[in-house]
Amino acid sequence: MSGGVYIPKSREKNLHTYKYSGADDSLVSKYILGPYWNWLVSLFPTTIAPNTITVSGLALVGLNFLTLLAWDPTLNCGAAKLTPGYDARGPNDILPPTPLLARFGFPESVIAKQEGSGSACMPAWIFLTWSLGLFAYQSLDSIDGKQARRTGMAGPLGELFDHGCDAINTTLECILSTAALNVGRSYWSIAALIACLINFYLTTWEEFHTGTLYLSAFSGPVEGILMICVIYLITGLAPSGSQFWDRGILSVTGLEHFPFIAKNLRDWNLPLNDAFLTFGAFGLGANIVASYSNVARARLSRKQSPLTPLAGLLPIGALLTCMTLWMTARDAQIMADGQSFVALYCAFGLMFAYSVGLLIVAHVTKANFPYVNIALGWAIMGTIDARLPEPILQNSLGGVRLVAFGVLSMSFGLYGHFVYDVITTITKETGKPCFWVPDSVKPVEAKKAEGKKTK
């Protein structure tokens, strides 16, 4: 037998030596959510597989995404601010908001169409369900490892499954967040996805080189998700819904009523969504420094070059460069068409999940770093076609949509094949099923009870 497509026979034996290593410096995890997670996992019987818990959480996020597709499938609500007479100020606001980017960061192709009338904006209750769904996802995602240890099902498949679901959730939450923050099909939505995917990739890249999954005092899986839950909650409770985030930060905080600030800082009355996303950029910079510091320290302790791992950032750099160049090609024709934009946005999310999956497989099987993959190949080809003076395929609205949905379909098929092949290979090698706990595997509680009886 030659093994699977992604895990060759020669690497299967390394699955048995894999052992998870993690470090969480979050005070929220330790003192607030930790006790809640310990209580929550105790409610699940040991007959439920940890991967079942993980995929159940992702299903809730998928349901949130379906509500977005049902109400505003092309993210038109954010474009409502392009219509004549739109005023982002609240009833009592004095200063007008001053966006960092002209016309709230929308490309000229979207501005010219002035598509949004506000009629597609979602009702408040949807954002409240998003907040509940994401919090439930975080809860289930945080106890699957605990359930794995309770049931004796801990292993490499659990890490692959957990990280895979997290990678999918990253893209889905990014597009949901841009809808909630009312940035729609603007450059901000592309920047948000770039920041989210880099953050996630850095964590996985760091784990590959250090052997440990580090979660800092402020991490995406804990504080980041809680912050997004609060954004959804505020959007759902605000009278103006997602348009609340277009208000100026000096107006919302009341600082505009101080004469000195109103006079000297009026040009810095950033919309709340601009301010939040700018804050995220600073957070990304801090995470880059922290991740590389951990990698460099680990490499130096093994007397290895701290510079070599930087080559591992080239795949994600190439993928996100392709996404940016493709999305903005030909006067941002992808962004001008909501159907194409959402389809390609999700396609790049799947390409990213596939790239991260390859990296995790390499980590648990002790294989070489995966620098190249097929998804990057068609991302490059699609970008080149879009950037040609006369595109071969993307030379009309129909062609643009055909390519966008075609790439989405290919990415979905590729990632689906990856998931199936990896699950099949690991379950055959380890003897541990993916979605149920076999009778042959005794829960930890049962083993402890047997040990007491023996004594």
TrEMBL record:
Its main location: membrane. GO terms for biological process: phospholipid biosynthetic process. PROSITE patterns: CDP_ALCOHOL_P_TRANSF. The chain crosses the membrane at residues 186-202, 214-235, 275-295, 307-329, 341-362, 369-388, 400-420. GO terms for molecular function: phosphotransferase activity, for other substituted phosphate groups. The keyword Transmembrane applies. It is found in: Membrane. One of its GO terms (cellular component) is membrane. It comes from the Eukaryota. Keywords: Membrane, Transferase, Transmembrane, Transmembrane helix. Gene3D superfamilies: 1.20.120.1760. Belongs to the CDP-alcohol phosphatidyltransferase class-I family. This is Choline/ethanolaminephosphotransferase. It comes from Meira miltonrushii.
